[in-house]
Amino acid sequence: MREDGAADFRELFSLRIDSPPEERLLPAPYLRQRFHLAHYPVRARLYATAHGIYHAELNGEPVSDEVFAPGVESYDIHLSFQTYDVTDHLALGENVLGVVLSDGWYAGRVGILGASKGYGDRLKAIWQLEVEYADGTTQTIASDGSAVSSTEGPIRYADLAVGEAYDARIDWNGWSTAVFDDSAWAPVTEVDLEQSLVPFVGEPVRRVLEVPAVEIIRTPAGETVVDFGQVIAGRVRFRVRGGRGHVVRLEHSEVLDRHGNYFHNIVGPNKDQTDVYTLAGDPDGESSARSSTAPSVAGGGSTRSSPTPGLHWMIRTRPITMRRWSGCCPCMCVRSPASRTSPSR
User: Fold this and answer.
1) In the chain, N or C: fewer CB atoms in 10 Å?
2) Which of 109, 330, 338, 104 is nearest to 233 (CA)?
3) What is the average pLDDT across 189-204?
4) What is the CATH classification number for the domain harbouring 160?
5) Comparing C-alpha atoms, which of 114, 124, 109 is closest to residue 51?
6) How far is the CA of 319 from the CAs of 191, 237, 278, 314, in angstroms?
7) Between 341 and 99, whose confidence is greater?
8) Sign of CA pseudo-dihedral 241, 242, 247, 250
9) Please, are residues 47 and 82 in contact by the beta-carbon 8 Å criterion?
């Protein structure tokens, strides 16, 4: 058995991968770089990109509303970089740039055969911050050995086809701020740039719409299915209250079978399409939106939810929404057919 995907198309639908995703995937790397500004800047630009998907923050705030940067790349030829105006994100004194990575199209299991490491097996990030002061002087902060990294954060894995696991018990609130304790983090390894850098051309992928759940379906098989009424490339948001360590699983699909039961129509090795959220146990309830910095999975039009036994919750349509993405990305947003059932089963 090859857990990393099928060898060819003949094996595509016969290969079984029984190991759980946490045994197949690695935790997301978090990176931090501290730097000092002696004066308030009048202009600051951040140039950044990565092998894998990256999400950048400065002093606790995202540098952009873009997701999935740098996008789909021909990593063996060139690497696109993004440019962000971060003037208002900087402060006098100590600052922190934070970057979190996931496999994305570089190392993720996005191919039809489900294999990973299409371009490489080591995630990397590169950035350069150009700061200009009122007197005309400039300061450059570049990615180097002063940055530190850790894989002990709440994103336990994140893959475009497999899904995301987020453990809210790991409280890293403020992980990209100066007051966060990174004393246990390890220095990064510096490597040489492998290909030429080019400016990104296209429309960035952004959250453009929040789609409410249309209906909560109790299937004949006793499953709970959240129906969004359309096939969407996006992410589910929900609120839940339960004990610390309880788990909510969200499995994504597009149709029901002819009996009205959940039908997993996204088939093949490493096509789990399942998000896992482990509760922190907040007695006032908590929101899955806290994991929204995670580069993660594209969901379908219907979602099956499976709470841990003993987790007391009530599903209503109002607190469940899907954030739709749009941009220059191979994600399709199309209306579902009038029927929600699959004619083949």
Assistant:
1) N
2) 330
3) 92
4) 2.60.120.260
5) 124
6) 45, 8, 18, 10
7) 99
8) negative
9) yes
